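lol so apparently i was supposed to do this last week
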Amino acid sequence: MGVLDVVPAGIVTGKNLLKLYDYCQEKGFAIPAVNCTSSSTVNATLEAARATNSPIILQVSHGGAAYFAGKGIKNDNNQASIVGAIAAAHHIRTVAPLYNIPVVIHSDHCARKILGWLDGMIEADEEYFKKHGEPLFSSHMIDLSAEDKAYNIETTAKYMKRLAPMGCLLEMEIGITGGEEDGVNNEDVENAALYTQPEDVYEVYTALKPIGDMFCIAAAFGNVHGVYKPGNVKLEPILLKRHQEYVKSKIGGSNNKPLFLVFHGGSGSTEEEVKEAVSYGVVKMNVDTDTQWAYLEGVRDYVLKNVDYIRTQVGNPEGSDMPNKKYYDPRVWVRAGEITLIKRVEQANADLGNINTL
Ligand SMILES: [Zn+2]
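anyway here it is w/ zinc ion bound
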């Protein structure tokens, strides 16, 4: 029994996505969501998941999507982020069948001031749905955690009503992930906001559940974007257990994990912390900082090792007329970054128990 007995290979949307996350909770593992910024990072992440025989989540942030479209494109109206996210989704949909694994296409944090980005992606979902009976993206995230709670929950519910008929899942955030990512800086947020209360999670649940099952919650438990010196904020995965218990105590039933939970800021967390969070029903863990670092490592080491072969197009220690083309071909040095990225995604799969899960 494995994931492929529950959902087919390919892009996972609608009921299959619920089945996938249910299966994660039942078997006690989670899937890494890797931020991708290019076809290179998408392909490397897919390659890693194929190597570990696992499902995978590929996501684009607002800035990452704009990068996908091209840094030369203006983004004053989210146009680069909209088109870049759509391009990423189509690229993933085009190549994913060759990897023969289940793939979730997701968009990352969307704050109030960039809701136009989410609107643009949802329009693309609706257009895709008309032709293919499923949304272009498997899921989106809306992040109004910096706004007041009533606005956050009400607006999230409004978006979920639009997405649910297409079978597109919505991730929301309540309580704030600390640190800095993609230009959003929460390094100075008040400590209490970094730990979501069970009552708040239940309030989200009661607002969204009547609309359907297709939502998941990123609740803050001292998690932080980025990698920092230890000691600033303490990670408290036990809070996630309390959320599950609290909601269960309110709604009854036998399900010990009534919530799909998302772990943001997975980079820099210890193996034990990750394992504990997963045991409380985390189904998705975002990894960005560590995979950015991993992508650089391979390129850095390549350059340092081959520095005498890449100073000039012709001429290296083996001879002043020796060509260097095979050293500066991007398929060699970008590939070096892909290989170290692949290793890091494989490690994320291992940390989350997502090895040989197909
Ligand atoms: Zn995040």
